[in-house]
Amino acid sequence: MRKKGFRTGFEFSPFEEKLKSPFDKLFDIFKELITHTSGDLDEALDWLGQLDKEYKLTDEYYTLDDFVEDLKRKGFIQDRIAPNGNKEQAITAKTERAIRKNALDQIFGKLKKKGSGSHKTRSSGIGDEHTGDLRSFQFGDGLEQISMTESLKNAQINHGFREFKLTEDDLVVEDTHHKAQMSTVLMIDISHSMILYGEDRITPAKKVAMALAELITTRYPKDTLDILVFGNDAWTVSIKDLPYLQVGPYHTNTVAGLQLAMDLLRRKRNTNKQIFMITDGKPSCLRLSDGTYYKNSNGLDPYIVDQCYSAAAYARKLHIPITTFMIAKDPYLQSFIEKFTQSNRGKAFYTGLQGLGEMIFHDYENNRKKRIK
């Protein structure tokens, strides 16, 4: 079944059915559908009903009505008052969290596991992760770092057993690694081209954003992630809003997105900062000083392009690398991205939709290693 360019991407087998309960099996599909429909519960359930007719997902013992009742009972959907005053059903924050975790499992679960928790610097010093190494006390070390057992042993060796005496020279501390922070801004293009030509590009972008948010909040809790979308203008969105992102009738104001990203990163106190930008189209819009818009969708407009290069160069001065994930392979667009990347000394990837999430996660972890050392 195809609807609005949607493909299920699921394979059903007796083996999977034995492992999962009827609810869990349907819930996996439901999480995919609710992402594709940008949080529209009615449309997601309609698609689920059509998939049920085609693939026989339910039987007389567990029906779609039973599934909907379980969604209510488990707190995944609830009644609410719509803006028009009517009563309707909608997904809850619990469902939003489940969608983020599902995206993380799909994308990051394919990658090799690389340790646990926050990334350490090579430098030792005041920190909060013990290395097991011991060294002499230095000015500035915290009292909580002092190993009393080893320090008392030193005092006994240095001063004998008859008189208890503990001096600064006897003190030994357990070394720690300082766990640095990385601040990331993820820019998502929501211009109209993200759904042109019958290809859904916004859903993979949303999945990447949700998975990245889940990764950072669970694996790197000291890191920060800001997410913004850009069309004619740019604005921030919260993590909980990600499932509901939709493409609008917008041009692509890349400069507005970059300016907002740099404004967000200026407020961060840590020094490790980066921008990820997911886009599939050329820059085609600028907002002028008088508040009007300059738009040109025909080719690469030199005025718009030069403003993009300037923004990239300014980010470089702020020591903010930009990694661009280009969901297009047009030669003239690649040429623009190459020059844009040179202006920033960042990185660029030209990718289809399939490998987008995996590439971003590889790059996120690689960037942490390079920037935090």
TrEMBL record:
The organism's place on the tree of life at top rank:
Bacteria
Bias kind Basic residues: ranges: 113-122
- What CDD domains is this protein classified in? vWFA (cd00198)
Q: Where are the annotated segments for Disordered? A: 113-133
Which stretches make up the VWFA domain?
Answer: 184-282
Q: Where is the signal peptide?
A: none
Output this protein's name: VWA domain-containing protein
